[in-house]
C-alpha cells in the first residue's frame, strides 16, 4: 500500500501575467512543501492563464512561459509539481509538465481539443496522442487536461498504462448546469477505469467567462470523496490510499450556501471584481433608475468592490416616478455609495428643440423615448471619463434577446453584469440577496418596493414593459427554449405557448442580432450566452 499526499492549488492565474503567475506558483510550492505534500497540482495553462487566445501566436510569449517553467523546475527539490503551460516544439500544445528534482521530468499534451461554446483550442493547439503516467511515491499517477476527462479514451489509455490515480487539471468555465455535468462525467470515468480522480479547476473571471473552482475528489468506485466550494480560493489538501483507491480530504473550506441563487450571485460578483481589478480600474459607475435591474447591479457591484469604489447616478425626467426617486435614494444610502441626482430634463428638451425642424412634423414615437436613454448615456460616459470609473450597463438577457434596449443609451457601458441573466432570474437573485442580508443581520440591500413594482423603462406616461413584451415568465420560457435548447418555433408552440407569441419573440431575437454585437461583455453564466458562444449572423434570411 502506498500513500500520496496531494495539494491542489484552486487559485486564479490571470491571462498574460506570466511572471506573476510563476511567482504565485513558487509561493504555493513552498507552502505545499512545508505542509508535507508529495505532489502539488496547478490548473490548466497556469503560466499563461486561460484562455490566452492570440497571445499564443507570439513567440516571445511562448518563450516567456518556457523560461518561467524551467525556473520553477529548479525549485522542486523535495517536491513534485504538476504545472499547466503552453508547450512549443515547432507546434504548440496545451501541456502539463511534472517538475521534480530540479528537472522537467515528463510533459503531457492535451489530447481532446474542445472547439465548441467558448472554446477555440483547435485554433491554437495540436492534439497529443498518449496519456502520460509517472510514479510518485510508489503511486502510478496519470495526467490529463480538462477535455481529456470528458472523453473515454484518454482515461482508458492512462488506466491501460497502469494508472491508479488520474490527476486532471482544468480551466472549465462555470455555468448553471456545469457542476452536475462534471460529477456525472467523473463518476463515469472512475467506473470505466477503476482509477481514482483528482479534479482541479481554475478559479476567477476572465473577460466573458468565470471559472468557479469546484474541484473534486472521486474514489475509484465512483463515489465523490470531497467537493471544494465554488468561487473560493484555496490550497486543498488530500491523502490518497492506493490500495483502496480512495481519498481523505483535509480541512477543505466549508460550503456556506449551496442554493443556485447563492452560487450564481458569487459568479457574478467574481466576474465584476476580476474584470475591474485585472484591467486596473479604480471603480465603477452606473445609472440607478429605481428599477430592479439597476438595483441588483448596484448590490452586486458593492458586494464585489466595496461601496467606496461605486458611484450611482439617478437621472430623472418628467416621466420618472416618485417611487423610482425614493427607491434609488434609499438603496444608495443603505449601501453607502457615492450618489448623485442629475436631471436630464433640460438637456432632453435641448435635443428636442434642435431636432424638431429636422423631424418634419412627424408624431412622437420611440425616437423621443430613445433620446432620453441616449441623453443618459452621454451623461454617464462623461462622468465615467472624468472620474476614471468604468461604466456598468444594467440590462438583462431577456432585454438583450428581444432588443428591448437602446443602442448608445442604456446599452452604454464597458461591462454588463446581467447580460446573461434572464429577467425572471433577476427577481430570484434580488429576493435571495435580501433574504441573505436578513440572515446576516443586515438591512435589505434592495428596497422591497423596487422588487415588487411592475417593471418600466419610464420613457412615457404610465409605461410598463408588458406594453411591449409578453409577461416575463412567458417570455423567458420561450427564450430559454429557443436560445439554450435550440428548439424550433413549432416545438416551442407544441409545449403550450401561443404560436403568434412564439413567432413574435423569435422574430425579435433574430432581428436584434445587430444590437447584441455592439453590447458590452458580461459574465457567461448559462449554457448559451450571447457573444463568442452564440454566433448568429447579423444578415440572414432564415426565419
TrEMBL record:
InterPro entries: C-N_Hydrolase (IPR003010), C-N_Hydrolase_sf (IPR036526), Gln-dep_NAD_synthase (IPR014445), NAD/GMP_synthase (IPR022310), NAD_synthase (IPR003694), Nitrilase/CN_hydratase_CS (IPR000132), Rossmann-like_a/b/a_fold (IPR014729). Residues 4-242 form the CN hydrolase domain. Pathway: Cofactor biosynthesis; NAD(+) biosynthesis; NAD(+) from deamido-NAD(+) (L-Gln route): step 1/1. It holds the Pfam family CN_hydrolase. The active site is at 44 (proton acceptor), 44 (proton acceptor), 110 (for glutaminase activity), 146 (nucleophile). GO terms for biological process: NAD+ biosynthetic process. It catalyses: deamido-NAD(+) + L-glutamine + ATP + H2O = L-glutamate + AMP + diphosphate + NAD(+) + H(+). ATP binds at residues 287-294, 394. Catalyzes the ATP-dependent amidation of deamido-NAD to form NAD. Uses L-glutamine as a nitrogen source. NCBIfam families: nadE, PRK13981.1. In the C-terminal section; belongs to the NAD synthetase family. Belongs to the NAD synthetase family. This is Glutamine-dependent NAD(+) synthetase.
Amino acid at each position: 500500500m502506498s500513500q500520496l499526499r496531494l495539494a491542489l492549488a484552486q487559485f486564479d492565474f490571470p491571462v498574460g501575467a506570466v511572471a506573476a503567475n510563476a511567482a504565485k506558483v513558487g509561493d504555493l510550492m513552498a507552502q505545499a512543501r512545508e505542509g508535507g505534500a508529495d505532489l502539488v497540482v496547478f490548473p490548466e495553462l497556469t503560466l499563461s492563464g486561460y484562455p490566452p487566445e492570440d497571445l499564443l501566436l507570439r513567440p516571445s510569449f511562448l518563450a516567456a512561459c518556457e523560461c518561467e517553467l524551467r525556473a520553477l523546475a529548479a525549485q522542486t527539490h523535495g517536491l513534485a509539481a504538476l504545472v499547466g503551460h503552453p508547450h512549443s516544439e515547432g507546434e504548440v500544445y496545451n501541456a502539463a509538465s511534472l517538475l521534480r528534482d530540479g528537472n522537467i521530468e515528463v510533459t503531457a499534451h492535451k489530447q481532446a481539443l474542445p472547439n465548441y461554446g467558448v472554446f477555440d483550442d483547435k485554433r491554437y493547439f495540436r492534439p497529443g496522442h498518449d496519456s502520460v503516467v509517472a510514479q510518485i511515491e510508489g503511486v502510478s499517477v496519470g495526467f490529463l487536461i480538462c477535455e481529456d476527462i470528458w472523453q473515454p479514451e484518454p482515461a482508458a489509455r492512462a488506466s491501460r498504462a497502469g494508472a491508479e490515480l488520474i490527476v486532471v487539471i482544468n480551466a472549465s468555465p462555470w455555468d448553471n448546469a456545469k457542476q452536475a455535468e462534471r460529477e456525472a462525467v467523473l463518476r463515469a470515468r472512475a467506473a470505466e477505469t477503476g482509477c481514482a480522480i483528482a479534479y482541479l479547476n481554475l478559479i476567477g473571471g476572465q473577460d466573458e467567462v468565470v471559472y468557479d473552482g469546484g474541484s473534486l475528489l472521486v474514489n475509484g468506485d465512483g463515489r465523490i470523496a470531497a467537493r471544494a466550494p465554488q468561487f473560493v480560493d484555496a490550497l486543498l489538501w488530500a491523502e490518497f490510499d492506493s490500495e483502496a483507491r480512495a481519498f481523505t480530504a483535509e480541512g477543505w473550506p466549508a460550503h456556506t450556501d449551496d442554493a443556485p441563487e447563492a452560487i450564481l450571485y458569487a459568479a457574478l460578483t467574481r466576474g465584476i471584481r476580476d474584470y475591474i481589478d485585472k484591467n486596473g480600474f479604480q471603480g465603477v459607475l452606473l445609472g440607478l433608475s429605481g428599477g430592479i435591474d439597476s438595483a441588483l447591479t448596484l448590490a452586486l457591484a458593492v458586494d464585489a468592490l466595496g461601496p467606496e469604489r461605486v458611484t450611482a447616478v439617478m437621472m430623472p425626467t418628467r416621466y420618472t416616478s416618485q417611487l423610482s426617486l425614493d427607491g434609488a435614494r434609499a438603496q444608495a444610502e443603505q449601501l453607502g455609495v457615492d450618489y448623485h441626482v442629475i436631471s436630464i430634463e433640460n438637456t432632453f428638451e435641448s435635443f428636442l428643440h434642435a431636432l424638431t425642424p429636422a423631424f418634419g412634423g412627424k408624431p412622437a414615437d420611440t425616437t423621443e423615448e430613445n433620446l432620453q436613454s441616449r441623453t443618459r448615456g452621454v451623461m454617464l460616459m462623461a462622468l465615467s471619463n472624468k472620474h476614471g470609473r468604468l461604466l456598468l450597463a444594467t440590462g438583462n438577457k431577456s432585454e438583450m434577446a428581444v432588443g428591448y434596449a437602446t443602442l448608445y443609451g442604456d446599452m452604454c457601458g464597458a461591462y454588463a453584469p446581467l447580460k446573461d441573466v434572464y429577467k425572471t432570474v433577476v427577481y430570484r437573485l434580488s429576493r435571495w440577496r435580501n433574504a441573505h442580508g436578513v440572515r446576516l443581520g443586515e438591512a435589505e440591500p434592495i428596497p422591497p418596493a423596487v422588487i415588487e413594482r411592475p417593471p418600466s423603462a419610464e420613457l412615457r406616461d404610465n409605461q410598463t414593459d408588458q406594453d411591449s413584451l409578453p409577461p416575463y415568465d412567458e417570455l423567458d420560457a420561450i427564450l430559454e427554449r429557443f436560445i439554450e435548447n435550440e428548439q424550433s418555433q413549432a416545438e416551442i408552440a407544441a409545449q403550450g405557448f401561443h404560436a403568434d407569441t412564439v413567432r413574435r419573440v423569435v422574430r425579435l431575437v433574430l432581428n436584434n442580432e445587430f444590437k447584441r454585437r455592439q453590447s458590452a461583455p458580461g459574465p457567461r453564466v448559462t449554457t448559451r450566452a450571447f457573444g463568442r458562444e452564440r454566433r448568429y449572423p447579423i444578415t440572414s434570411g432564415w426565419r
